[in-house]
Specification:
21 strands, seven-stranded mixed β-sheet, elongated, 758 residues, four-stranded antiparallel β-sheet, 3-hydroxy-3-methylglutaryl-coenzyme A Reductase, Chain A, domain 2, alpha+beta, Alpha-Beta Plaits
Length: 758
Amino acid sequence: MSADKSSSAERSRFPEFYKLSVNDRVRVIHERGWLSSEDYQALISGEHTLKIHKADKMIENVVGVMGLPVGLGLNFLVNGRDYIVPLVVEEPSIVAALSSAAKVVRGAGGFSVESTEPVLIGQVQVVDVPHVAKAKAALLQRKGELLNLANSLHPQMVARGGGANDLEVHLHARPEGGDMLVVHLLVDTRDAMGANLVNTMCEGIASLVETITGGRVFLRILSNLTDRAMVRARCVIPVSQLGGRQGYTGEEVRDGVILANEFASIDPYRAATHNKGVMNGVDAVALATGNDWRAIEAAAHAYAARTGRYTSLTRWYKGDNGELVGELDIPMKVGTVGGPLQSNATVALDLRLLGVKSARELAEVMGAVGLAQNFSALRALVTEGIQQGHMTLHARSVAVAAGATPEIFDTVVERLVESGEIKIWKAQEIVVQVRKEARGAAAETIPDNAGRGFGKIILLGEHAVVYGSHAIAAPVPLAVRAAVQETKSGGVDMMIPRWGVEYRLHRDPAHRDSFQRSLGIIFDTLGLTERSVRIEVFPNVPRAMGLGGSAAMAVAIIRALDQHFKLGMSDAQVNELAFACEKVAHGTPSGIDNTVATYGKCVLYKRGQAEGQAPTMRELALAKPIPMVIGISGKESLTAKTVGGVRTAWQRNPELYERIFREIDQLTLQGVEAVQGNDLERLGDLMNICHGLLNALRVSSWEVEELVQIARENGAIGAKLTGGGGGGSIIALCPENPEKVVAALRDAGYQGMEVNIG
């Protein structure tokens, strides 16, 4: 973890993180510095997931890959350092409970955690020993020789500061009489999990052990009771941090937690569930970081029974000043290097996100997570009860299944819980009602004079249009609106409530980040930089999905400023300024997005042949509306990246790529007649051919190809990507049963909507 990560006291705090969309969550943690640009792209694109060909190398008889959600435990402060903790778990209450518990402990100074060296025990079983006492003494006398032999098998581990560092000899009475001799080889495996390493060492010393003892070595294998690699996590919570839930005082919560822990300490039936709660958190981190959760489970439960009676792994008691003190002692042997990192990209990404520098640091974080999970469970038990918390979280899952979109999600969940009927049918009823209310509210909330910019689809011609070919584009019934209000704040404030965006435009262009540059161009060009205004944006065009969202936003803001300050801008001036913004966003745009966003017409478009030359544009009159389905992949489409990739390939082989551009141009011109004459069969054929040519430009993605295939299999007569590609969206021509295509897309986990072009 970098110095700035460790020095900031609030980097793991993300208020209302759960309300954001998945893409926005990834964006936020990227902007906060937890993710590199490469990891950000991997998460957005889905490239971090385990691929089938790699899975086939990991285990036998592979037929598929099963996924589990990766969530983030927030608010963790451990030994004075901030962490966001990746958690792989299917139970909905765990992530929320952990983040809540960590927030409480954070307010009390965070977790303090100690750990021992990462030592793993290897066992060598010796039988048929003629004189066990003499054999034990001889083994201990020649300890140095045995350790040197073991270390010679793994010199690299010794070079890293690890290796076999001690040897113990234990005698065990056998049921049929006599003693069994067992050698314990204590190995510091550093950042490796170390199972294979220890097993190799045990195999390697077996012959010498037989020579020394005169017996016969039988089993030689590691022990998963890793009680030489211990973690102790501790937290101290003032009663002032405990009260308020369901009307309980802090003292009542403290005493309830202590009493519940006493129950687990004396009753193994309660202790089993109590300790399972600890492992809910520990196992989730183990899975996320590629560690052997089964070994960790075995060690924890064996340690809980070390006295001969199974008991609690935690201890909660009243401190000297009346505070609640919690402690967790748990064996924790984990690794941060080895096979899983090379075979599973998600594991490597999760470890980078967590930011630990060693296996020992990882073990300490896992100890804090285990204690946090135990606290959250006990606090829930002694206040509102576990079931109430589960009900809310279950309602969230049901709301998702019922199709609740992000902007109405929280309302649907709240009403669903209030109803007491946590069922999909009930959630669907609520979704319909809330959407009706939202439509009415939107009409009231968005000012009548708000500026508007249209979203777009490209029917034919994307990418080739950048090189002077034609393209056919059309507006879609999705728009971005913007409203301007003068303030006394002394600056330009930008707000996009739906995206959780709020910032102030820096007056100095040199200090503007990438998100501010387009807005800066607008204000600088219009001479409004010194004005004190607030701009509120209402986006209905999804971001980075190939539907012209950036251009629509620029046009909406320009029109809102034009209307508010009565600048008298023409459509051509609006379009020109929006194009300047597009250059900031995309590098070398064709100008088609801002043109459609400005004019809101179905057009045949061709950019100017020379720098500064105006494009040619012809409005296309449609005989009938064209029934389309838009399929949205959810993978952000970075137009600048795909356009840049095509440009590089074109520069490498201009003759080949210009031939493809000419072919796209020819079929686009054929499409004009099909569009205007409502020849849908011909238009569908042209769309399919265009998609094939775009594939030749290598601008598609597996998500886009899946969307296209689903659409075609369910009745679309034409389907292709639209926009820059690399993700984003597709369009499907559906003269019959468009609802079937939409349903199939949604069943596959994508978004789909019916639109009529024209």
